[in-house]
Amino acid sequence: MLKTSRTHGLPDHAELQSRLEALRPRLMAFARIQLGDPVQAEDLVQDALIAAWEGAERFTGASSVETWVFGILKHKLVDEIRHRRRELATGFDPDDTPDIDGLFNPRAHWLPAARPQKWHEPEQACLQEGFWQVFDFCVLHLPESTARVFSMRELMGLETAEICEALGITEQNCWVILHRARLKLRACLENGWFGKGEQNNAVL
Amino acid sequence: MQSCKRATELMSQQLDRELSTSERLGLRMHLMMCRHCRKCDAQFKVLHELSSVRSQAGSERRED
Prior knowledge:
- The complex is a heterodimer of chains A (204) and B (64).
- Chain A is mainly α.
- Chain A folds into two domains: 84 residues, RNA polymerase sigma factor, region 2, helix turn helix motif (Rna Polymerase Sigma Factor, Chain: A), CATH 1.10.1740; 112 residues, Arc Repressor Mutant, subunit A, CATH 1.10.10.10.
- Chain A contains seven helices and no strands.
- The longest helix of chain A has 24 residues.
- Chain A starts with 12 loop residues before the first helix and ends in a 10-residue tail after the last helix.
- Chain B has one domain.
- Chain B is built from three helices and no strands.
- Chains A and B meet through α3, α5 and α7 of A and α1 and α3 of B.
C-alpha cells in the first residue's frame, strides 16, 4: 500500500494528494470532537491539508506523512481551543465516561478476562503502517466527551489545568475521565493491534 | 494492599500530575506484588509516549 518513498521519504505529488485525501475523514473526526461544529471542523481540516500540501517540500520524512499532517491540524486545534475556551465547553458532559466495572471484580482486582497481556513490540508501533488507524478507531469509540479530553491531553499535549479551564470541569473530573479513557484504550489496542501479531487490522 | 483499580487510577494520574509521596509508595508496593498491574503501568506509559510522538510532530514546521 505504501509506495517506496523518494527523496527524503516524500512520496510523489499524486500519491501525496491521495494519501492526504485518505486522511481527511479521520482528521475531520478529531476536529469535530474538539469543535463540535462540523462546518468549522471542515474549514480547519481544509486549512491543515492545504498547509501540508504547500509545505510538502519542507517535509523531511522524519515522521510519516500521517503524523506530520496530524501535527499541523493539532496546532490549529490548540489555537482554536485557546481562543474560544468556554464557548467550546457548551455541551460537554463530564459524566459521559465509559463504564469500567466490567474490568474489575467486586474487590476491585482485575477480572481474569480483563488482565493486561504482554504487548508485542510496543515501541515499534508508531512506525508501522496502519497503527494510527487502529489507534484512532479506539479513541473515536470512546464516549465523545471522553475522546475529547483524551485527545486534548495526549494528542495535543495540553496540561490538565488548561483542559479543565477550557471545558469548565474540575481536575478531579479530568483525572477520572483520563483514567477510564486509558483503561479502555489499552484494552482496545490490545485486541486490535498488540495482541494479534500480524492480524493488525482485525479491529477494523 | 491497594486494589488494582486504585493502582490503575494512580498509574494514570502520575502521567498528569505529581503523585504525593504516600501515593507513590503505595503504587510502588502494589506494582511489586501484582504482575497484571505492572503490565498495565507499562502500557499506559506506552500510550503516553506514542501519543507524544504524534503530538510533537509538526511542531518544528509551524506554517505561518
